[in-house]
Automatic annotation (TrEMBL):
Residues covered by the Mandelate racemase/muconate lactonizing enzyme C-terminal domain: 151-247
Pathway membership: Quinol/quinone metabolism; 1,4-dihydroxy-2-naphthoate biosynthesis; 1,4-dihydroxy-2-naphthoate from chorismate: step 4/7; Quinol/quinone metabolism; menaquinone biosynthesis
Known EC number: 4.2.1.113
Protein name: o-succinylbenzoate synthase
SUPFAM superfamilies reported for this sequence: Enolase C-terminal domain-like (SSF51604), Enolase N-terminal domain-like (SSF54826)
Cofactor or coenzyme needed: a divalent metal cation
Function per UniProt: Converts 2-succinyl-6-hydroxy-2,4-cyclohexadiene-1-carboxylate (SHCHC) to 2-succinylbenzoate (OSB).
Family indicated by similarity: Belongs to the mandelate racemase/muconate lactonizing enzyme family. MenC type 1 subfamily.
Source species taxonomy: Archaea, Methanobacteriati, Methanobacteriota, Stenosarchaea group, Halobacteria
Keyword Transferase: no
Recorded catalytic activity of this chain's protein: (1R,6R)-6-hydroxy-2-succinyl-cyclohexa-2,4-diene-1-carboxylate = 2-succinylbenzoate + H2O
């Protein structure tokens, strides 16, 4: 990483933040409540130096429980916005306390730097993180199926497979374990054996329920169960995995990574896979670093979002593209939003999402947002 090239190292002419609010088409049911609406801030930065005038865009879309509150995000952005010649704004934004604010500013700076260099964001992230391989031009994705009655869940899963998805993630943990087992059975029967299935309990179960659920779900060849236990129960997750090594269901950590950090999860041997949300981890750079650390420990990284708007979703696609041979990622959530900040530059075809070629996030696709 060179000094004049590193995000946050240069002087920044101006940082602006504009609030937005977007409704979901219909609520996404999870064990931690329904997600109905996303409120955040569109960020724009104008870096100084060498006569370049590339404006970078970013997005800070907090989801309380995963990130700071909307108020804390607003206050953190306020502290770095609209100040002439703000130096190293990233140093003022703590990933641990205000990850969404840091995400927004770090993405805008990285977008600007990538545009200046005429490279895609994925190329810039990969080279900053010393990834040798070239970024992928498309990334496999899972369809996201929320909680619902068994027949509804099976119908939604069938629709996703008809649209070309060969990996589905089902939300579980809202109902009791027996009902969820029946939902997974109904989906497996509806979609057949060739489709990869994941289940996400969002920390809903205690150790006894989790053991019972994983034992019963072993019959349905799940790729993994995501966050079967609360975020802090790393020892419990490690013990559940004992079954995975013996042919049971693999375990993925999501909330645990956001709450405790990637290093704690890897040190505790708590997961077969980790689910990485750039918005919850403090930025695309930090999410890629976590992915590479997981990979080097033999743990499979998966990139997803907190149901972000198009700017942060596109950034997460670039993060996923920079991870060599990445597993299906939770990036097919654009259709959950009723409206968006701009048209989506990442078409999904046959279960894969296209990575924009740049420069930056998506060439000229977000130029309307840069000028506002
Ligand atoms: O991973 C996906 O398929 C979509 C994203 C998703 O499920 C999610 C969205 C918002 C908040 C939490 C979660 C989660 O993975 O638990
Ligand atoms: Mg999850």
């Amino acid at each position: 990483m060179t000094d004049d090239d590193s995000p946050g190292a240069g002087e920044v002419r101006a940082i602006r933040a504009r609030p937005f609010a977007l409704d979901l088409t219909r609520p996404l049911g999870t064990a931690r409540g329904e997600i109905t609406r996303r409120e955040g801030f569109l960020i724009a930065v104008e870096p100084t130096g060498d006569g370049s005038d590339a404006v970078g865009v970013g997005e800070a879309t907090p989801l309380p429980g995963w990130t700071e509150s909307s108020e804390a995000c607003d206050a953190a952005l306020d502290a770095v916005c609209d100040r002439d010649g703000t130096d190293a704004p990233l140093e003022a934004l703590r990933a641990a306390s205000t990850p969404a604010a840091r995400h927004g500013v770090s993405l805008a700076l990285a977008d600007a730097a990538a545009r200046d260099a005429g490279r895609s964001l994925a190329e810039r992230l990969a080279s900053e993180a010393d990834v040798d391989a070239s970024p992928a031009d498309a990334v496999p994705v899972n369809a996201t199926v929320g909680d619902g009655p068994s027949a509804e869940t099976a119908a939604e899963a069938t629709r996703a497979v008809e649209e070309g998805f060969d990996c589905l993630k089902l939300k579980v943990g809202v109902r009791d374990v027996d009902e969820d087992v029946e939902r997974v059975r109904a989906v497996r029967e509806a979609v057949g054996d060739a489709v990869s299935l994941r289940a996400d309990a969002n920390g809903a179960w205690d150790r006894e329920d989790a053991r019972r659920a994983l034992d019963a779900l072993a019959a349905f060849d799940l790729a993994y169960v995501e966050q079967p236990l609360p975020a802090d129960d790393l020892d419990g997750l490690a013990a559940l995995r004992g079954g995975a090594r013996g042919g049971g269901v693999p375990v993925a950590a999501d909330e645990s990574v956001a709450a405790r950090g990637i290093d704690a999860v890897l040190e505790a041997d708590a997961a077969d896979a980790v689910v990485l949300k750039p918005m919850a981890l403090g930025g695309p750079d930090r999410a890629l670093a976590a992915a590479l650390r997981a990979r080097s420990s033999g743990v499979d990284p998966v990139v997803t979002t907190t149901i972000d708007a198009v700017v942060a979703r596109t950034a997460a696609v670039h993060v996923a593209a920079a991870v060599p041979e990445v597993s299906p990622c939770g990036l097919a959530t654009g259709k959950l939003l009723d409206e968006d900040l701009a048209p989506d530059p990442c078409p999904i075809d046959d279960g894969r999402i296209a990575v924009p070629t740049g420069p930056g996030l998506a060439g000229g696709a977000f130029d309307g947002l840069r000028r506002e």
